[in-house]
Amino acid sequence: MPELPEVETTVRGLRPVLEGRRLTLVEPRRPDLRRPIPVDLRQRLTGATVTTLDRRAKYGLIHTDRNDTLVFHLGMSGRWRVDPDELGTHDHLVLETDAGRQLALNDARRFGSLDLLARDALDGFAGFRGLGPEPLGPGLTAPYLLARFAGRVAPVKLLLLDQRIVAGLGNIYVCEALNLSRILPRAPAGAVGLPALKRLVKAVRTVLEAAIAAGGSTLRDYARPDGELGYFSKQFRVYGREGLPCPCGRGLVERQVDGGRSTFWCRACQR
Ligand SMILES: [Zn+2]
Question: 2 catalytic, yes or no?
Fold first, then answer.
């Protein structure tokens, strides 16, 4: 499933193709993904010039000079294809630019979404309402987490996955950051002290930035004619590594399932 680094990598990969370019063709190829694709999408975007692209949480934002923003979510399986050799049944939105480039949003499972919003209506978008600070932005600090966790007995891992506390963090990178900062995933959030929270904030940035950097290099390798933006394999510390040595060198990675989600952790170094 695409997490924040994949979305960030996708946005970075789309920028050189889209920024400053006029959209000469906008073709939704089915009426809906997870929810309906706006019926006026083609009309409002055709002929518009893309100004900039951004990411918020796990959404990509494509801003145009008509004051509209196309907001995309990759869901479980979404990816943008750049200059594909041919279009397939899972290519649900096709864009073409005045530079002759073609982009296709491919989403086999259709858990993704496409929304078109006036720029000044973005803050009111349901996906953005109540979101906590960006994990790579200045709002995520140890004192902020200390305040949000105060008095909470819920596991620290669970609260880190709460989008109202931190925006866009998913299971993989929460497991990775807790291991790197040596914090027990099921520790009551309110019992995690400031020094540990400082390690945690640093670890969140480290694991996300490393993943984005790895995605960047994959992009250079694979964003060729039939390139797909969005996914890359990455060597994780603990995620998906049950029974293998933890990087601490003193324990093996364990897996525990709670609430349908796997937690990968090491009892030797996470307390
Ligand atoms: Zn360990």
Answer: yes
